[in-house]
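ok so i was messing around last nite and threw this chain in just to see what happens. nothing serious, just curious
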Amino acid sequence: MATTQVNEVSIGYDDSGNGETLILVHGHPFNRSMWRPQVDFAVAAGWRVVAADLRGYGESTVVPGRTTLDTFARDVAGLADRLGVRRFALGGLSMGGQIVMECLRQFPERISGVLLADTSAPAETDLGRKLRNELADRLLREGMAGYAEEVLPKMLAPRNISALPEIARQVSIMMHTTSPVGAAAALRGRAERPDYVETLRRVEVPTLVVVGSDDEFTPIGDAELITGSVPGATLVVIDGAGHMPNLEREAVFNTALGGLLQQVTTVEGQR
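result:
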């Protein structure tokens, strides 16, 4: 584990392997450890992989108030700058996918390939804004425990909680140990998220869209909208997985990721 200063906060990150760079952005309310199977896979495939804790999460600085997606995106760019990485493939799950889309809006010229997993592109609805702000209030009032227990059967397909007890334990620990202050700030920021569909229509690099067949938070229709918006995007629906197919069906997810990385290598070699 390493830390560095980015945009006046301390960011905890792992920087593994050598080669072309892949940056992975975790979802809410998790941390960079959710990407361990993909880090190991991509490093073995000859890539340099950077996985960082977002501000407010894991070992990064907790910032109260409201953290918008554009702030998270600037942190991604700032970390890449700190590590001397100009161009990189970029992947994210759920909130992490929305941060990836914001990165595509801010600095598409730096991105060589895109992974969007279990995420949604349209702007937040009025009801969504209300619910996210109410949840932020609740987390600040009660902490993470009750919320974590409630959403575990939605983060993972319910049958996987008993079928994959170690994965369920890992996901539960990540949620329980997340700072409620950091999580609340991110929820308030996501309540203001813009529409990314037009941004996606301008993407010109290899793009993989992944979704669990049983995802209740961002169902298959959300993934189909993204796939239909990005020219040439590939959609992979992972059977038997919920909102975290990278952990629930690691081998299938990694096979799809490997296809994307090969495509990026080929396209970048032609530039």
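not much to say yet. Residues 2-269 form a domain with the Rossmann fold fold (CATH 3.40.50.1820).
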